[in-house]
Amino acid sequence: DTAVSQTPKYLVTQMGNDKSIKCEQNLGHDTMYWYKQDSKKFLKIMFSYNNKELIINETVPNRFSPKSPDKAHLNLHINSLELGDSAVYFCASSQELGLAGHNEQFFGPGTRLTVL
Amino acid sequence: GENVEQHPSTLSVQEGDSAVIKCTYSDSASNYFPWYKQELGKRPQLIIDIRSNVGEKKDQRIAVTLNKTAKHFSLHITETQPEDSAVYFCAASTEDDKIIFGKGTRLHILP
Prior knowledge:
The complex is a heterodimer.
Chain A: E1 4-7, E2 10-13, E3 19-25, E4 31-37, E5 43-50, E6 53-57, E7 64-70, E8 73-78, E9 87-94, E10 106-107, E11 111-115
Chain B: E1 4-7, E2 10-14, E3 19-25, E4 32-38, E5 45-51, E6 56-59, E7 62-67, E8 72-77, E9 86-93, E10 99-101, E11 105-110
Parallel strand pairs in B: 2-11
Antiparallel strand pairs in B: 1-3, 3-8, 4-5, 4-9, 6-7, 7-8, 9-10, 9-11
């Protein structure tokens, strides 16, 4: 069974379009994340949600809007796509921070976004 | 904010030799240090982690050491095998509950 899944796996679109990436986890985790991995493989956190509530919002353009309908889903909507948005986007989830601190993050398979 | 530096960016070792990847961090409040392995075209996966109350942790051929005073931690892979070829990321937690990743090390195991 897939623990963290994302759709689509590949997304090719024109500049200026609006697109969404969906993420679902069946691990029962409370916290979900979106990361952007650029062509140099640098992994940068974009957003973090805990129990449907936004807890981290890094400096990303407001064209990016995460939406969490329930704690098992965290979707990423991107408006007015630009060339620089081309990257691989990873969703991840983890157990809520406990007394011992952070826990392992489980990543989805990634969505390769190409903006033409 | 937290800054995680990782070196080297690329590392080539002969099969059977050891590989060492080093990271430094800036936030003295960091208390969790995971290492992730990302094979080509795949997702990052946790291979080992260490918390600040421990100086060393080992899991078969992989070990991690942590020096909190110097704010650096290292990944050691012994008896390297072809399947160890991948990009490896160190990471550190921050006081505001984020995980910050290093820029990655591309490890090549040479036959």
